Amino acid sequence: LRARLAAGDELALLDVREQGVHARGHPFFASSAPLSRLEILAPLLLPRAGMPVVLFDSGDEGLADRAAEVLAASGYGNLFILDGGLASWGAAGHEVFSGVNVPSKAFGEFIEHHDDTPRIPPAELDAMIRAGEPVVVLDARPAEEFRRMSIPGAIDVPGAELAWRVHDLAPDPATTVVVNCAGRTRSIIGCQSLRNAGIPNRVVALKDGTMGWELAGLRCERGSLREAPPPSPEGRARARAAAARVAARFGVRFIDADTAREWLADSGRSTYLLDVRSPAEFRERHIAGSRSAPGGQLVQATDEYIAARAARVILVDPEQVRAVMTASWLEQMGLPEVCVLLPEGEDGFAGWATAEGEAGAPGAREAPSWREIEPGALAGRLADPGIAVLDLASSLRHRARHVAGAWWGVRSRLGEARDAIAAAPVLRELVLTADDPRLARFAAPEAAALWPGVEVTVLAGGNPAWFDARLPVGTGLDRATCATDDVWYKPYDHASDYERHARAYLEWEVGLVEQIARDPTIRFRRY
């Protein structure tokens, strides 16, 4: 496996353990694809049925074998299992990385180290703001994260949108532009993006982002809705000129529609078609079969979008600015074939079949039909001791809110859920629900096999339908059936010990520079 990774072969390496377990340790190029959600994740990560896929678990769980069966049933036929799993990888002396989105996080530290990206301490920024100096703070995270916590007065301008919208936000070259995120990566990449784009302003990254701000004893805003407006005609012109300079410097390649269609139809090579515009623009109209991958998040979490780094990548953005900025970073990350799709026609999509709304990946396996119970009908029976509700959403989502009285579990650990619920009164009916209703339907046949004699049903519409109907909800994790390591908990998810977790996280990010130097399969590019 290491030889094939070093050779740059087209290969997807999938860790089929839960994300929280993945975060404890994995090879650098592994993507987290938990068995519990594999049917949903596979079409997003694996765009070609014949692409080589290596699956692994810890080495003694049998999860990889079960995952191979799931992928085979979904039409994937070029499957391998890492002999001995992660344990054998580590025993062979190969580097094991903790955390999530490791390639992107390590790349951010690499860029700061080699480009000497300028940064500003929280106390200095706070003093500038209090003194009324000309400064604008641009938060490079998606709106959901921005609303959770933000620097007072900051404007939300996610990732690749920075070079597209900054020209109207800081038209005076005397204005200092500060880019921040929650920690380090998007602050560094965002700051360096604007420097690469050649804007005349002083541009700096906020050292350690909102975590550093709070650790310095400063207050974050909660629930802010400030966001950058679309660029003016003059702003668009300046953004395009900046993108042209970036494209020339980093050798960004372009591809026409005919070639793109040939690549997408090629059964011998995998191609990712990723739309790097804002989610709102994607929902309004996009190329059918493309996936929404906002540029900043694509660079921040590349392993969540591109499982096979040697595959072809086509970036979509009719304005091209965001696609060029994103491509420049993927090139530096070492991806071998990244291209920007040349627009056609007035709207850029001439000749393409288009779609609206949230698009599922093409070729996604259909969840099986199963007996359903409507939210209102279930609400009227919650007091029945013979009925149990099992929520398969993430532990974080369940903790925030869930069907009142529901148990929580992980689909790949239904056996543990059976043992925990067995302590309840005699069970006649088990109702499965999840944040994605498909997950409950995929789990239903497995649950029926584990609970013989019990009627297994799924909640129609899943948790979203229950919440939309304003039916009784609970909070907390007092009815967990297994360990809550299904997801990686961010520092701010640890409310009781935030400071310790934040400091540990920041130390981990900084330490990645030394660790990647020990792995010869990692080849970031310098320009």
Proportion of residues in extended strands: 5-15%
Number of helices: 22
Within the largest sheet, what's the order of strands?
Answer: 5-9-8-6-7
- Label the overall shape: globular
Mean pLDDT: 95
Sheet/helix structural class: alpha/beta
Task: Please give the number of β-strands.
Answer: 23
Low-confidence stretches: none
Q: What value does the Rg take, in angstroms?
A: 24 Å
Distance between the termini: 29 Å
Helix content: 25-40%
Largest sheet: 5 strands, parallel
Description of the structure:
- This protein is of the alpha/beta class.
- The chain contains 22 helices and 23 strands.
- A 5-stranded parallel beta sheet has the order 5-9-8-6-7. Strands 10-15-14-11-13 form a 5-stranded parallel beta sheet.
- α6 (102-115) crosses α10, α6 crosses α22 (498-516) and α12 (233-250) packs parallel to α16.
- It is globular, with a radius of gyration of 24 Å.
- It starts with a helix and ends in an 11-residue tail after the last helix.
- The model has no long low-confidence stretch (mean pLDDT 95).
Task: Provide the descriptors you would attach to this structure in a database record.
15% strand; five-stranded parallel beta sheet; 527 residues; 22 helices; alpha/beta; 39% helix; 23 strands
SSE layout and pairings?
Elements: H1 2-7, E1 12-15, H2 19-22, E2 31-32, H3 38-45, E3 53-56, H4 63-73, E4 79-81, H5 85-91, H6 102-115, E5 119-120, H7 122-130, E6 135-139, H8 143-148, E7 155-156, H9 161-169, E8 176-180, H10 185-197, E9 203-206, H11 209-215, H12 233-250, E10 253-255, H13 257-265, E11 271-275, H14 279-284, E12 286-287, E13 291-292, H15 295-300, E14 312-316, H16 321-333, E15 338-341, E16 354-355, E17 372-373, H17 375-379, E18 387-391, H18 395-400, E19 402-403, E20 407-408, H19 414-421, E21 429-433, H20 437-450, E22 455-459, H21 462-468, E23 473-474, H22 498-516
Parallel strand pairs: 1-2, 1-3, 3-4, 5-9, 6-7, 6-8, 8-9, 10-15, 11-13, 11-14, 14-15, 17-22, 18-20, 18-21, 21-22
Antiparallel strand pairs: 12-16, 19-23
Helix pairs in contact: 6-10, 6-22, 9-12, 12-16
